[in-house]
Design brief:
By secondary structure, the protein is mostly beta strands. It has one domain: Glycosyl hydrolase domain, family 43 (Tachylectin-2, Chain A, 5 Propeller). Helix content is 9%, strand content 46%. The strands form five sheets. It has a five-stranded mixed sheet with strand order 10-11-12-13-17, with no helix packed on it. It has a four-stranded antiparallel sheet with strand order 1-21-20-19, with no helix packed on it. Strand 8 and strand 9 form a beta hairpin. It is globular.
Length: 306
Amino acid sequence: MTRLLLLLSIFFISCSKKHKLQETIQLPHYPSSSGISYFKKQVYITGDDAKHLLILDSNYLIKDSVTLYSHTEYKIPKATKPDLECVTITATNKLLILGSGSSIPYRNTGWLIDPVTKQKDSLRLDTFYRRLKNNGLEEINIEGVCAIPGNIILSNRGNKTNRKNFLVLTRKDFWINQTDAPVTLIRVGANTDSTVFNGVSGLDYSNKSDRLLLTVSTEDTRNSIDDGTIGKSYLWIVENISAKKRWKAINPDKIIDLEDVDDRFKGQKVESVCILAESDNSITLLLAADNDNGSSTLFRVIISKE
């Protein structure tokens, strides 16, 4: 019996060590990191009430920034903030940044930025977000975006009142012709526990393995605008996402409780994810967390594919 217990304890210890938090990076002077993307050895970060896009080098040191707004305050006030929640690299190698759409007109905005020249073009997304509501989204709260071959995927986060997360599949350049861009809604993740709600907060896609990675967090909020008490954060993995683009609903193939990976994730509201590297056995990720305290934290994590 003693030997059996020993073997079981070894098994559970080995399972818990499959994933590893390698490094934490503090960004004390960048508020509310909400979107993160990695392109040509540079990390691009946007904050939902930050005035600029932050650019880090491969050592996660601040290299540059792109000013987006000219507010005098450290953080853009909540009532008028653009709520830039997500960023990705498009098929044309531009940075696409999207506002959440949760409050009109301030949050129906976005940016298209050339990462080389820093040239920026502002976007108005009123037409597209209106179409999302007409297609069945009760509340608009876009928190994630990523590019997959031929398409863009957005994630719409639910809350404790509207307990549904959706993926929005659309054209890779949907902002150009918002009236005619196709829209497909895919419900993602069932929420059966009435005491908590697991809300999708960020996305990234692996071209190497056709995996969709989603950051998910619990937060005590009953609408798409207010913040709530921070709960737990998770990583969801959906395999073979390209084969599931016509599905009505999907569940994650793997759920990773980040607190089980490392205690340093306790009290952290993980907002977004980007892939730094991928091998046959593992994926190296950078996660961005916003704890509503005016600073940001990044986590470099290795996730085993076993």
